[in-house]
């Protein structure tokens, strides 16, 4: 088997494998999203590249599907690692969460990218994020409130679909467990954002002027956090 990696527009480095038993050109994607191409010995690399280039749109659509999957040894939040374990004669995918690891056991005849396995992985990953959030976020929010003279009546941790957090008129703050997916400086940005709401409820010039009193880079951080989504 001869392997040659060739950079291609939009696709990055593509691995071309010449195989003795191949009868046609075949395109696959690895779990990490790398494009792999197997081709017969008699097909030139130039011809294989032309074929792959003609399939660019399809490959990119498949890469999106892979990019949205949870992968083996992927980091979950701040303290956990995801591990997929195929097991012979296992009935259905199941997830478990320990102190530092999220383990997904699944029937060996399935693949880790199978939707049923991914569903179990997301459920367990969300549990791990909730555990992390409950351990880390209330203490950090309380610290920031005390340091900056904010008053908070209650702190709740929930899995929110579209918001990083919220604050109501009773100074009750709700934080998204998916905050554990953010860098720590953006976690603090969200916590301060909700603390500012204990003084100024509505967004507007007054809110951002108040925010900048405590965090001069508030607007830059606001722009940065738009690159993240509260989902896994």
Give a count of the beta strands, DSSP E runs of length 2 or more. 11
Helical content, roughly?
25-40%
Q: Which structural class do the helices and strands define?
A: alpha/beta
CATH topology of the largest domain: Zincin-like
User: Mind telling me the CATH class of the largest domain?
Assistant: Alpha Beta
Give the number of domains.
3
Regions with pLDDT < 50 over 5+ consecutive residues?
A: none
Q: State the fourth-level CATH superfamily of the largest domain.
A: Metalloproteases ("zincins"), catalytic domain
Strand content: 25-35%
Task: Give the overall form.
Answer: elongated
Terminal residue distance: 37 Å
Mind telling me the C-alpha Rg?
A: 24 Å
Write the CATH architecture name of the largest domain. Answer: 2-Layer Sandwich
Following the backbone from N to C, one meets helices and strands in this order, namely EEEEHHEEEEHEEEHHH
So how many helices? 6
**Major beta sheet, specifics?**
4 strands, mixed
Can you list the strand order of the major beta sheet? 1-2-4-3
């Amino acid at each position: 088997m001869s392997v040659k990696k060739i950079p291609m527009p939009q696709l990055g480095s593509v691995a071309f494998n010449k195989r003795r038993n191949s009868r046609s050109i075949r395109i696959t994607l690895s779990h990490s999203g790398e494009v792999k191409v197997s081709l017969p010995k008699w097909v030139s690399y130039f011809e294989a590249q032309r074929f792959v280039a003609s399939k660019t749109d399809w490959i990119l659509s498949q890469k999106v599907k892979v990019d949205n999957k949870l992968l083996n040894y992927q980091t979950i939040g701040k303290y956990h690692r995801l591990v997929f374990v195929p097991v012979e004669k296992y009935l259905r995918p199941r997830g478990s969460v320990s102190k530092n690891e999220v383990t997904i056991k699944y029937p060996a005849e399935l693949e880790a990218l199978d939707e049923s396995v991914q569903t179990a992985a997301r459920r367990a990953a969300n549990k791990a994020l909730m555990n992390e959030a409950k351990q880390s976020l209330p203490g950090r929010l309380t610290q920031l409130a005390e340091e900056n003279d904010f008053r908070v009546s209650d702190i709740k941790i929930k899995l929110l679909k579209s918001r990083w957090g919220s604050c109501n008129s009773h100074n009750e703050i709700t934080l998204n467990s998916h905050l554990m997916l953010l860098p720590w400086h953006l976690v603090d940005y969200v916590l301060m954002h909700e603390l500012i709401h204990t003084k100024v409820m509505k967004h507007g010039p007054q809110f951002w002027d108040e925010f900048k009193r405590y965090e001069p880079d508030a607007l830059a951080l606001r722009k940065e956090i738009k690159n993240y989504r509260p989902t896994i």
